[in-house]
Amino acid sequence: MALEQNQSTDYYYEENEMNDTHDYSQYEVICIKEEVRQFAKVFLPTFFTIAFIIGLAGNSVVVAIYAYYKKQRTKTDVYILNLAVADLLLLFTLPFWAVNAVHGWILGKVMCKVTSAVYTVNFVSGMQFLACISIDRYWAVTKAPSQSGAGRPCWVICCCVWMAAILLSIPQLMFYTVNHTTRCTPIFPHYLGTSLKASIQMLEICIGFVVPFLVMGVCYFITARTLIKTPNIKKSRPLKVLLTVVVVFIVTQLPYNIVKFCQAIDTIYSLITSCAMSKRIDVAIQVTESIALFHSCLNPVLYVFVGASFKNYVMKVAKKYGSWRRQRRNVEEIPFDSEGPTEPTSSFTI
């Protein structure tokens, strides 16, 4: 998890500190980041609690509706279902990171590796499923829509997305561990050094942001242009939805990836030689990554709840639940010593 990578003590080199006989340019200066840790102890648990509650409620409804009530699923439905599962699994890691920020990692090295890997798998796969949804919407608007349902290719694509995300989580399984300050953080071998760390960061940026952003941008741009040129349809609402989806993605994901890119560049070229600047970068990565995580809470609203079809399913479920409650209440009101026959209660039909 990126926001845990730089909360320990860092070392910097003073430059141009020379007298007539000695070169002090290689002496290390310790950068104590206690302020960063204190900020994390307050900010991260608060933000993660809010995100966990909101995201759990919204994504649980999506999974329940698509898994148990909506039997005929389109490709978009399958992608949204997988997206909701990825968001839920991602949200389930937040309580661990909240405790880690306050008390340190108390669950051992194995759980540190597993939790970090699960976080990466679901964060990356969530971004990829957003790209899949944009492609399917593009085909639905610009091409003749298929009536055959999801089909095998759709599930193959989902499996490929999950496999790619799992492969990208291998560094978390290998290098995450509990350090001397009892924090779950990546520790890279000295002989691998900066090049491996920077390569992993760049790969995460490309797969987790650049590729989905380019796919979404191109697909939604063509989709919007097609909608504008199509006569006799109401264009305002679909265009507003497309614009909202793109703007929310940029606002939540771009700042985090910019800061992450700066970290990768600094890993290679050691541009940050100031302790104060290093602390600001650490706080920035905590804030921006938390904002990026909040996208998992917004996905149900952006991709599901705005659709009339899903609203109809929610209403059907609500009516079934209301009918079940009324039926149960009627049964409970019947005396236990009644010997007469009872009238059958209404079924779950709407």
TrEMBL record:
Name this polypeptide is given: Atypical chemokine receptor 4
Query: Residue ranges of the G-protein coupled receptors family 1 profile domain?
Result: 58-303
Keyword terms, alphabetized: Cell membrane, G-protein coupled receptor, Glycoprotein, Membrane, Receptor, Transducer, Transmembrane, Transmembrane helix
Q: Where in the cell is it found?
A: Cell membrane
The encoding gene is Ackr4
Could you state one GO cellular component term attached to this entry?
external side of plasma membrane
Q: Which residues cross the membrane?
A: 47-69, 78-97, 117-135, 155-178, 198-221, 241-259
Single Gene Ontology MF annotation: C-C chemokine receptor activity
**Pfam families per the UniProt record, alphabetical:** 7tm_1
Q: Which family does it belong to?
A: Belongs to the G-protein coupled receptor 1 family.
Superkingdom, taxonomy of origin:
Eukaryota
Looking up InterPro entries in the UniProt record yields: ACKR4, CCR1-9-like, Chemokine_rcpt, GPCR_Rhodpsn, GPCR_Rhodpsn_7TM
Q: Which GO terms describe its biological process?
A: calcium-mediated signaling; cell chemotaxis; immune response; positive regulation of cytosolic calcium ion concentration
